Amino acid sequence: MLFAVAGLSLALVMGSAADVKGKWDGKITGQRPDGTTSEDTALLILDQKDSTITGTVGGNESDQHPITSGSIDGNKVTLVAKNTKNGRELQIELTIEADQMKGTITIGERRGQLMVKRRKE
To answer: What is the DSSP letter of 20?
Structure first.
């Protein structure tokens, strides 16, 4: 009986989504049309209720854009945000690895690598 209860507990823990609520700092690395590399700062401010993620994304505290669609499935995070300055859509796909997330950001034809770490507050 103890084994059955332990197995149920393990299934419940494995079935729940990771907690991504909080601030995540990092960088975006991309390639310019001329082949050179560009690097920008990134800040994700995330809230989470079950598998739904809301919040904002941007370069820093004063450059934030609302998430219009966000979800988490296991260790995979998918976000869509709208740039409030130019109306462009940002598509972000990340994989959670401990206290960091890595993946891609796509804005129109441009695509870059995104790496963020949970801010210690």
So the answer is: -
